[in-house]
Amino acid sequence: MTIFEKVVAGEIPSYKVAETDEFLAFLDVFPLKEGHTLVIPKKPVDYIFDLEDDTLAELNVFAKKVAKALELVVPCKRIGVAVIGLEVPHTHIHLVPIESVADINFASPKIEVSEERMKELASQIAEAYDKS
Fold it and tell me: Is 92 a catalytic residue?
């Protein structure tokens, strides 16, 4: 069972920002920037391009809605998008608030965000998501 399956099952706590029957978005606990969000299908599929076409399309539409909410909460030029697929064997999309391309460099040290701030961000992004 992957760490993301444990998040979906509620075995590992997370800072959820959005959820549907098929997808989940939550804050990355090792973020590059405040608001760094992971978007996953609940059904575990290792490689994004092994998803069924409909699921891949729906995942991207869900990620777009999450990104729009994130953009309303965290000041940035854009929401950067990355799919690397090597860290956890469960499809996931990184949504990262960025000012420049350097902000989405996964070789950079991760930042520390307090639990209080993570809860605040998750709540604000969830509220913006629900309003959209």
Answer: yes
